[in-house]
Amino acid sequence: MNDKIKSQLRKYLQNYDYENFVLGDSRLNASVYKKFLFPYNALDYARNLLADTIKNYSIYFVLSCGRKEIKSYEVHNEYVDIKYCDIDKLSFNFMEEISLNYFLLKSLQPFFEYKICKSGSSFKVYISTEQMEKLKAIKPDSYYNLPEECKKTHLFFEEFDIYHMIWENAQDEEPEEYDLLYIGKSNAQESDFDILKRLNSHKTIQKITRENNLYYRSKELMIMIFSFKSKLFRPYNLDCYLAHIMLGNSGWEKAKLLTNIKENQEMILFIEAMLINHFKPKYNQQYVDKLSIKSKIYQQFNRQNVNPIVIELDLCMDKGKIHLKSKETRTETKMRNIKCCKIDDKIVIDYDDMSDFIYDFL
Questions:
Q1: Using 50, 70 and 90 to split pLDDT, how confident is the model at 243?
Q2: How distant is the alpha carbon of residue 209 from its chain centre?
């Protein structure tokens, strides 16, 4: 291991030093398990893609970025060239181009039709009812290999949103900057009201949508949803060595190591509060001011000596990273560690950014 790696690893591991650690305190770490980013106008697309796993997502960010719009397309033998522009940059005269390599079933290619949808934010590849009848007559084997749902409805289609096409065609880890407008939560595992239903009916999000349509028409509202997993670290004395060690347990809730604290209720509520307090998004009101040690949502943790509470906010996408920007702060790396500590009977929320070099190394 060279000196550069050692130096950066040492800096990263300093995040786990217990400057204010008291023997008997437990540490609760919440890390991003899964995340998904999509346009707000594509809630149905997200539901179809995520299916039953949607109940695992509990925290959402409402974001804003420059709107991309598909202007034209050209069909080739095995792919489609799609031309789009960034409305926010007024780049109508400079068209970006991406290729949609879709035609895995070449036998179906003559029956495909194409359509630019949702004001240029998505591209639809489909087989109409009329073309489906032709397919059944001309190529019955291909027809009967289609999914049962397609044969039942006599309709076959796939819809691709422009943002996912851009990300999937990205050559480098190009950062995308997003304004963070609002942070919210949904306890989907405790009810049938999952995070997408919450997003569809939330009054604040409806207000954001109205204002975006009125004043920021060159902007696209995006949604980033997160599921978290957590681990409770507890100290144990090794009297024979005059030392103590910390052992982590990801099954702390099932083992009932903390009383009256559930991972998808009290913990998610406090994660939401920490994130709001840290970023201070424009449309949030609750938890924006300093969190009090007497706060009801913190008392459960305080009484059981949980200190600190750490959120490992992973903002890395498959082929890029997300830069979040609010009035209070902005991120510039793939991982931000947000830490809540009790110091001198006060709650202090601080952060440090893990370097991309260490993130990739780990």
A1: low
A2: 19
